[in-house]
Amino acid sequence: MSKENGNGNGNGKKTHPLVGTAMEMETTPLRIRRFVLVRHVDVSGVSGVGVVAEGVIFTSGRVAMQWRREPGALSVFSDIDALLSVHGHGGGTEIYWMDEVQ
């Protein structure tokens, strides 16, 4: 799971000006949840910074993510930790949840 620090809004939740509040993730979601991948530092020089990808986590825990920049490659990961192990860049990239936990 991504770190929940910085950009505090005083209530312990992190906010991003483009997508709202970062929310905690359950181990197994009860429904599909949408997220965006927010990059603070572009280590590769390819994806840029800000909201760079969109994705969903399924009730199985599997994750599908599509890059916003062309060619818009689509990737599937076994879980959110697998996604962050590849694209997290040591905290330079974070997940912002679009949907509330149910």
Summarize the structure.
It contains one helix and seven strands. The longest helix has 8 residues, at 80-87. It has one helix at 80-87, and strands at residues 14-16, 20-22, 33-39, 50-57, 63-67, 74-77, 93-97.
Describe the protein's architecture and organization.
- This protein has 102 residues and is mainly β.
- Helix content is 8%, strand content 34%.
- Strands 6-5-4-3-7 form a five-stranded antiparallel sheet, with helices on one face. The protein has a two-stranded antiparallel ribbon with strand order 1-2.
- The longest helix has 8 residues.
- The chain is globular and about 35 Å long.
- The two termini are 18 Å apart.
SSE ordering = EEEEEEHE
Largest beta sheet, briefly?
5 strands, antiparallel
Give the spatial strand order of the biggest sheet: 6-5-4-3-7
Q: What percent of residues adopt helix (DSSP H or I)?
A: under 10%
- Tally the helices: 1
The count of β-strands is: 7
Percent range for β-strand residues: 25-35%
**Radius of gyration over all CA atoms, rounded:** 13 Å
Spans with pLDDT under 50 lasting ≥5 residues?
1-12, 15-23
Q: Taking all residues together, what is the mean pLDDT? A: 73
Shape: globular
Alpha-carbon distance between the two ends: 18 Å
Give the class from helix and strand content and strand pairing: mainly beta
